[in-house]
Amino acid sequence: MLESGAQSESGESQASGDKSGAKSIRVPNAVAKSAPCVSWLPSDEKPRVAMLCIHGFSLHKGCYAAFGKEMAKVGIATYAMDLRGFGELKDTTQHTELDFDGCLADIKAVLEQIHKNHPGLPVVILGESMGGSIALRATAFYPDLVSGLITSVPARDRFGMSGGEVGVTVKAGLSTIFGGYAKPMSDVAKAAVQKISQKEEVRNEWKNDPLMRNDFSPKEFLQFDKFMAGNLTAAGLVKNTPVLFVQGTNDKLIRPAGTWKLFERLQTPNRQLVLSKNAEHLIFEE
Asked: How open is the CA angle 34-137-39, to the nearest 5 degrees?
């Protein structure tokens, strides 16, 4: 649970782990920056709900374009933003490390702005994969700003690595040994594309979209894993917010058992888990 009196060395509030081994997580005190956003708004009616979409690892806000257009048709004012280091915030001249605290601060600021744009409307946050994990964390930290959470495959538990992923692991190890722990390795995110989708058009879009981010350092992969390890603790902090979990049964990347384990840790009584028979790893962004 959140410990209101506990502070880290940097002055950040702590949420401690429990006896099950869940990791400690912290409420960030990072300063929010202006995040690039895009919106899809109902054209002929007043929105009945607003929604903020958080993209997955390597992806960007534009990956929600088709989904956002469909949501606008049914009266949902839909927004998506680029997380730090991704999309328009991907620095092509200087490597940008992952910054989850900064991302959460930016999300808080965007949620506050959406509330100003649509006073009185409920605001839902939606995320997929890494974005689902971040959306879960934002719901735990900022319950007054989130009326509901929709999160797809936010779990850490993965299936065994493919040959390409094994190659990335070996490359990361060698890079670290020879002093490249913080240096980006080119095209390493593409190793997971084979598991993310069997559809050739999806794979091609991933490979050819200039806003996709595919270069990451060994340090960043460890940062990512550490963040995902805090999911169980974050789920335990969601006590009242309505939550919908979604898992594709054709997902070759994340184990359904991991999503179920995370779902079971939610403390809110208003929760539901939906298994999609036909879906792969990407559901909303595809």
From this structure: 40
